[in-house]
Write a structure and sequence with these properties.
With 237 residues, the chain is an all-alpha fold. 76% of the residues lie in helices and 0% in strands. The protein has helices at residues 14-22, 25-46, 51-54, 64-79, 84-127, 134-145, 147-156, 162-171, 176-186, 188-199, 207-236.
């Protein structure tokens, strides 16, 4: 008679334990931190802000391909924490108001989408365990229940840093399509103001430049006032 085939034993070896450790929430969060630190270090070394001073390469100075390439570079730079106002000014200076705005908005949505995906896949499980403070729970609840409306407000009022809003949304239970749509719509006014200012930088007394800079100042002051009032209201509560 043939000997019975032994039942398969569950895998409990070193490889399985290592795999579980690598896929644990805090391991993935550590990977996220490493990716972001690497991106920030690369930004410091390459200094993409020089684009404002040196300009776009001559062979890429015009055409739809240059606009698309700039949009992709814009998105990657925002993930690496390059300030969006600098990129928006560069978009206007290089491509003018219309093409510059298209490139800047595309790059904004691309960069926000990449950041959201990184935060959702690598950081959400670990960071949600830290939501114990009153402000953190309130922000998480607002974004989870009213994601589109809340993110639209954050993008319209430039009081919250771009990267911070991306990762807060990723840690919440906000839906990806709502996040991208709110980012695209809410970023239009402020992005357009910076792009127009960049395109008219050579004529600082022109009506378009003055209107753009005035809008930037007013929205900045308004965001500061709103943030101050909300902070004191939460403190009183």
């Amino acid at each position: 008679m043939l000997d019975p085939v032994p039942a398969a034993r569950p895998a409990t070896g070193l490889a399985v334990r290592c795999t579980r450790a690598l896929l644990s929430p805090w391991s993935r969060f550590s990977l996220l931190v490493a990716v972001l630190l690497g991106a920030a270090a690369t930004t410091l070394l390459l200094d993409p802000q020089r684009l404002l001073a040196t300009g776009w390469p001559t062979r890429l100075s015009g055409g739809a391909a240059a606009v698309v390439l700039f949009g992709v570079a814009y998105g990657v730079c925002t993930v690496a924490f390059v300030p969006r106002p600098l990129l928006n000014l560069a978009a206007g200076a290089l491509f003018g108001s219309q093409a510059g705005l298209a490139a800047a908005l595309a790059g904004t949505v691309l960069g926000a989408g990449i950041s959201f995906a990184l935060g959702r896949v690598l950081g959400q499980d670990a960071l949600r365990t830290l939501l114990r403070g009153r402000w953190l729970k309130a922000a998480d609840g607002q974004l989870s229940r009213h994601g589109f409306r809340s993110m639209l407000a954050l993008r319209l009022f430039p009081g919250v840093p771009f990267a911070a809003a991306n990762y807060c949304a990723a840690v919440s239970r906000m839906r990806y399509p709502s996040f991208l749509m709110a980012t695209g719509l809410g970023s239009v006014p402020n992005t357009a103001a910076y792009v127009v200012a960049g395109s008219e930088a050579s004529s600082p007394t022109s009506p378009a430049f003055l209107a753009a800079t005035g809008f930037i100042v007013l929205t900045g002051v308004g965001a500061t006032v709103v943030a101050w009032r909300k902070r004191h209201r939460l403190g009183a509560e």
